[in-house]
Amino acid sequence: MTDVLDPGPLDASDPLAGFRDRFAPAPGVVAYLDGNSLGRPPAETAERLAAFVRDEWAGRLIRGWDEGWWTSPTDVGDRLGALALGAAPGQTVVADSTTVLLHKLAHAAVRLLPGRDEIVTDAGNFPTDRDVLDAVAAERGLTVRRVTTDPAGGITPEHVAGAVSERTALVSFSHVGYRSGWVADAAAITRVVHDAGALVLWDLSHSAGSVPLELDAWGVDLAAGCSYKYLNGGPGAPAFGYVREGLLAEFAQPVRGWVGRAEPFDMAADFVPAAGIRRLLSGTPPVLATVPLQVSLEMLAEAGIDAVRRKSLRLTGYALDLADAWLVPRGVTVASPRDPARRGGHVTLTRPGFAGLLAPLHAAGVIPDYRAPDGLRIGLAPLSTSFAEVHAGLSVLRELVEL
Fold first, then answer.
1. Residue 1 has pLDDT above 50, yes or no
2. How far apart are CA 118 and CA 145, in angstroms?
3. In this structure, how many other beta carbons lie within 10 angstroms of the beta carbon of residue 90?
4. Residue 333 CB burial class (10 angstroms; 0-12, 13-18, ≥19)
5. Where are the domains of the chain?
6. Which of 169, 315, 325, 327 is within CB 3.0–4.6 Å of 332 for a Cys-Cys bond?
7. For residue range 236-282, what is the model confidence (pLDDT) as tens digits?
8. Is residue 349 classed as helix, strand or coil in its secondary structure?
9. Which residues are catalytic?
10. Are 168 and 198 in contact (CB under 8 A)?
11. What are the tens digits of pLDDT across the range 311-355?
C-alpha cells in the first residue's frame, strides 16, 4: 500500500523542485521551516554582491548614481509590483523598513481625510502595525478602534463592516496574519472600507512572494511590506511601499528628505515634493541592499507567482496531513485555516511547552519559528523547501512531543 505521507512522490512531481538547488547550502540544517521570517539566500546572491562591489561601486564610483543607482527605488519597485503585487508601474518604491513605510503611509492617509477621527485595525495585528497606528493616532488627535478576531483565523469583511463608520479615516490590516496564516479577503474588505468613505492600508509582509496579490484590481489605496521573507532579500533588506496612482497628487508623507524633492540637486530653500511615487522617498536609496532582492525577483519571474502559490498550498496541506497523523493525537492543536483559500504560506501548531522544544529542535537541525505563548510556525518557502524537508522536520518534532 502506498504511504500517503511519503514525500517522495510529491517531490518527484514538483515542477519547482529544481529551484531548491539554487539556494546556498545550510550546513547542519535538516529542515529549515522558517522561510516566513527569513528566506534563504540564493547561491547567486553572493556572486552578484561581489560583482556589484567590484564592477559598479569600485569600478564606477560616484558615476554609478547616473547609471542606474538613482532610479533603483522605482526600477526595482516597478519590477516587484509587476511580479508580486499586481501593481502597474509608477506606484511602488523600495526603501526604508516596513515600520517606517507604514508610518509614512498611515500618516499621509489620515491627512487626506480631515474631519474623520478614527483608525480601525485588529487586536491581533502584528505589534509594529499596532504601534505605528497608535503613534499616528496620537500625533493627529485620532483614536484607534481594535477589532477582536479568532486567533486561529483573522479579519473578515463582516468584522470590518461592523467597525467602520463616517468617523473612519483609515483601516489597516495584514493581508496574511502573522500568527495563524489567515489570508484576508482583501478585495471584499477594501470595498467595505471604500463604501464607508475611508482609505485602506495593507501590510503585505507575509504575502509578497507567496500569495498572489492584485492591488490595482482590488482598488487598494496603500500597502507596505518587507522583502526578507519569501522575497529572500536578506536580513534588514529594504521594504516596499505602494500608493494608488489616484492618490499621489495629494499624497504628503511626514518624513521629508532630499530624495523626495522634485529637484533634489537644486538645493532650493523650500521643499517641493517629487511628482508621483518618488514623493514617498526620504533619504539616499539603499542601492547595495537591493542587489539580493533583484536576484530573488529574477527567480520569481522564472517560476511565476501562480506556480509558487500552487506549491505553497501543497506544502502547507502536506504539513497539515503530517500534523493530523502525528501531532494532533498527542495534544497539538492546528491554529491555522484548513480552507486553502484562507491559508497563507505557514501553518501554526500550538501546545503548552513548545518553547522548551526549541533548543532540542535546533540541536537536531530543525529550525521552525516560535511565537509566544506556545505557537510553532511552520514557514514553508516554495522555491527552497522540499516535501522531504517538511517530513524530516515534523518527524523530529513528533519524536520530541512523544518524550
1. no
2. 7
3. 17
4. middle
5. 7-32+304-402, 48-300
6. 327
7. 999 999 999 999 999 999 999 999 999 999 999 999 999 999 999 99
8. strand
9. 126, 203, 228-229, 377
10. yes
11. 999 999 999 999 999 999 999 999 999 999 999 999 999 999 999
Calpha distance 161→14 (Å, rounded): 41
What kind of architecture, by CATH, is found in domain 7-32+304-402?
Alpha-Beta Complex (3.90)
Fold category of 48-300 in CATH: Aspartate Aminotransferase; domain 2 (3.40.640)
CA distances from 254 to 172, 236, 257, 282 (A): 18, 22, 10, 9
In this structure, the chain runs to a length of 403
Residues 24-49 have pLDDT tens digits of: 999 999 999 999 999 999 999 999 99
Residue 240, all three cell numbers: 516596499
Residue 56 cell numbers, joined: 559598479
Q: Which residues pair with 375 in a beta bridge?
A: 350, 371
Around Cβ 19, how many Cβ atoms within 10 Å? Answer: 21
Going by pLDDT thresholds of 50, 70 and 90, the confidence category of residue 151 is confident
Single-letter code of the amino acid located at 114: P
Quickly count: other Cβ atoms within 10 Å of residue 123's Cβ. 12
Entry pTM: 0.97
Partners of 241 in beta bridges: 93, 224
Locate the DSSP E strands across 244-344: 333-334
For 357, list phi and psi in degrees, rounded to 5. -90, -10
Strand order in the sheet with 143-147: 92-95, 239-243, 222-225, 199-203, 168-174, 118-122, 143-147
